[in-house]
Amino acid sequence: MKNLAAALLARASISTDPKLHQAISRGAAERAEVDRKRTHSIAFLKPRPAVEAGSSATLGSARSARETSVSAVSARRQTGSLLSAIALAAVAAAVAPREAAAQSVLDRPPNLTGTWVGDPGVVYFNFLHRFMSSDPPQRKVTNAPTFLLAAGLPGNTLFGVRYATSSQLVAQVPNEWELFGRFNPIAQSRGGPLDVSVHAGWNNAASSFDGELTVARRFGRLLLMASGRGFSNVFDQDDALMAVAGGAVISITQSLALAGDIGTLLDRDEDREDLAWGAGLQLRIPTTPHTLSLQVTNTNSGTLQGSSYGPRTPATKSLRRYGFEFTIPFTLARWFGGSAAAGPATRMSGDTVRIIIQNLAWSPANIEIDRGATVVWENRDPVFHTATSDDGRWDSGNIEASRSWSRMFTEAGTFAFHCTPHPFMTGRIVVR
Ligand SMILES: [Cu+2]
Questions:
Q1: CATH number, domain 346-431
Q2: Which of 324, 368, 332 is nearest to 94 (CA)?
Q3: Helix, strand, or coil (residue 232)
Q4: Chain centre to alpha carbon of residue 401
Q5: Fold classification of 95-334 (topology level)
Q6: d(CA 327, CA 318)
Q7: What is the pLDDT of residues 148-189, one digit of tens each?
Q8: With CB atoms 3.0 to 4.6 Å apart as the test, which of 46, 104, 145, 427 could cross-link to 240 if both were Cys?
Q9: How far is the CA of 359 from the centre of ligand 1 (A)?
Q10: How far is the CA of 425 from the centre of ligand 1 (A)?
Q11: Is residue 228 a contact partner of residue 212, using CB atoms and an 8 Å limit?
Q12: Residues at Cβ < 5 Å from ligand 1 ion
């Protein structure tokens, strides 16, 4: 053990102060049993062999003793490259503009991302915030936010980053980054039997490659999902580990759902790690693309590793956090000249023609019809829309979810229209 500790001290580039050396060796011995249990698990996930049993505790202690300036420099460097990657993703997304809805918290419980990959041309900013109160009399409130910034790309992919500023994943590394890509090859909405997604990420705090496979299936009002997760270096302790999680969402109305989830590392250290759990009241904010989750959970950060366990200490009971998540989609077409009403019209013949309203967009948005034809606006979104003439000639009023509204056009001319709650939804009808 002494030789091992010395080797690790050398590796961590810190001085071999005898007291520190002693402390590290002692900590390692105490944790050896836990780590031996850990080390046997999931050997195929390991990117490199573990040094030997005891390595993780020793490394963990060594890491906390390491000079913070070293990790600060490397964190800055990695942060820079992460930001460049995000900028690239945003530019790529702008190439394929399309109106779209938010990532809906109505489609997932607090600690699972589900099979979400967003829509191409939409940048997502999700703000997850959790609060925890200390014991009386202080009742000090601590905050743990996780920000998600991601861009939906063509091919059912999403690329982005999560950033947690009060992470408890690795001691001495409070700012946790996870750079990730997601792919959703099979979806019920595209005719598949269920939803499948894969998620691959790099966790900067743990220096770990993290992956997730999720399957989900909707049965009417009930959405069930299950995830298997793998971490190459959980908690930066030179340990590969897997986790499993499952969750459900029950829709009460179009704008309200209840959600719950549970998850665990496959080999938990009972002194420090609880089962992860979460429960949420999931809300769609009417006439906006935003959704809000009011939640209670015991997890700390919203990354794959962070959402796989509930942090605890031997002295504390299970911790409980209250929080919320707010989802903000930025549809790039709104800023980059993506007016759907511009450009060539779609020629539609027949007495009745249909404009489908889906994902906050008309399809098609710009049509040419014969005089006397009737246009039917069919709303397939879960929120209401209006078809309102720009010059006040007509107004559909609210077209509720799954409803339609129609108008006959008896005079020739060009008629521009829009949706009142979503002014970026513009369209045009040319009557010949
Ligand atoms: Cu609308």
A1: 2.60.40.420
A2: 332
A3: coil
A4: 26
A5: Porin (2.40.160)
A6: 28
A7: 999 988 889 999 999 999 888 898 899 999 999 999 999 887
A8: 46
A9: 9
A10: 6
A11: yes
A12: 385, 419, 422, 425
**Mean pLDDT of the residues in the chain:** 78
The position carrying tokens 């003793």 is 65
Domain edges within the chain:
2-65, 95-334, 346-431
Q: What are phi and psi of 82, to 5 degrees?
A: -65, -45
Q: Does the N-terminal peptide bond of residue 137 adopt cis geometry, omega within 30 degrees of 0?
A: yes
CA of 376 to the centre of ligand 1 (A): 15
Q: Is 390 helix (H, G, I), strand (E, B) or coil?
A: coil
**Poorest-confidence range of 75-79, 317-321, 358-362?**
75-79
Q: How far is the CA of 371 from the centre of ligand 1 (A)?
A: 26
How far apart are the C-alpha atoms of 251 and 182, rounded to whole Å? Answer: 25
255 backbone dihedrals φ, ψ, rounded to 5°: -120, 10
> Which stretch of DSSP H or E encloses residue 27?
helix 18-39
Mean local confidence (pLDDT), 345-362: 91
Give the distance (Å) from ligand 1 centre to CA of residue 405.
13
Q: Rounded to the nearest whole angstrom, what is the distance from the C-alpha of residue 218 to the centroid of ligand 1?
A: 26
**From the CA of 422, how far away is ligand 1's center (Å)?**
4
Ligand 1 centroid to 419 CA: how many Å? 5
The rounded Å distance from CA 100 to ligand 1 centre is 11
Rounded to whole angstroms, what are the CA distances from 371 to 9, 47, 105, 311, 405? 83, 68, 44, 67, 18
